[in-house]
Amino acid sequence: METRRAFVRDLEHEHQVALFAWAKRAQRTMPELRWLHSTLNGMPARSARSANRQAAAGNRKGVPDVFLDVARGGYHGLRIELKRPGPHSTSREQREWIAGYNARGYKAAVCVGWDAARELIVEYLGGGK
Known about the structure:
Strand content: 5-15%
Distance between the termini: 39 Å
Mean pLDDT: 88
Number of strands: 4
Structural class: alpha+beta
Order of helices and strands: HEHEEHEH
Oligomer: single chain
Shape: globular
Helix content: 40-55%
Low-confidence stretches: 1-7
Largest sheet: 4 strands, mixed
Number of helices: 4
């Protein structure tokens, strides 16, 4: 099962890498993309000690993967939980964080695949709700 889980994470990682590669190119026309960044929540801890160190430093289960700290359309910023295409699910903690962000003036959503995340970011930067 661990091999399958690592493969799923790798697919999500590849989508996140593709999203950030697009954002780097698109900064010429959308300079706000400079403020796009990620948590490393999708990256597995290398050891129990590493996981404990990350938690002690503030890493929290369920926090979305991608942040865009630019206010638009009445929102404080954008939060994206990026999922790979195909079978996937969100954890209870992820659903709680997304609901919490939405309740506190952020736009937060789950996007399946980097292209869906790109579309949401472009819409968001255009002021779309």
